[in-house]
Amino acid sequence: MKKIKIIIIALVSVLLIGSATFAVLFFATDIFKSDKQLFCKYAEQIGFKEFVDLEGYNDYLKRTESQGHSTNGAFNVSLTQEADSINESIKYARIYRPSK
C-alpha cells in the first residue's frame, strides 16, 4: 500500500513538473511558434516610419521631376518544375527629360 502511494505521488509530481515546464516554454518563449507567427510578431515591433523612409522618397520624387534622369534594368525569371524549365529576361529603359 505504501509503494502505491509513493508511485502515485511520483507520477503526479512528474506530471505537474512536465506541465509547468511546457506552460513556461509555450507562453514565455517562441519555441512553438511558426515562422509566419514569428514574422508577424517582430514586424509589428518595427514602426512603419522606421521601415520606409518616406521623407527620402519624397525628396527623390521632387528631384527626379526637376532633373533629367534615366533608368535601365532587367528582370530575370527562372521557373523549373520537374523536367520543364522557363528562363526569360525582360529589359527596360526609361529616359525622362523635364519640360522647360
Radius of gyration computed on alpha carbons: 30 Å
Strand order of the largest sheet: 1-2
The secondary-structure element order is HHHHEE
Main pleated-sheet profile: 2 strands, antiparallel
**pLDDT < 50 stretches:** none
Q: Quote the beta fraction.
A: 25-35%
How many runs of DSSP E, i.e. beta strands?
2
Helix content estimate: 55-70%
Counting DSSP H or I runs of 4 or more residues, the number of helices is 4
* Spatial separation of the terminal alpha carbons: 102 Å
Mean pLDDT: 87
Shape: elongated
Question: How would you classify the helix and strand content by structural class?
Answer: alpha+beta
Topology overview:
Elements: H1 2-28, H2 35-45, H3 48-51, H4 54-66, E1 69-81, E2 84-96
Antiparallel strand pairs: 1-2
What does this 3D model show about the protein?
This protein is of the alpha+beta class. The protein has 4 helices and 2 strands; from the N terminus they run H-H-H-H-E-E. A two-stranded antiparallel sheet has the order 1-2. A hairpin with a 2-residue loop joins strand 1 (69-81) and strand 2 (84-96). The mean pLDDT is 87.
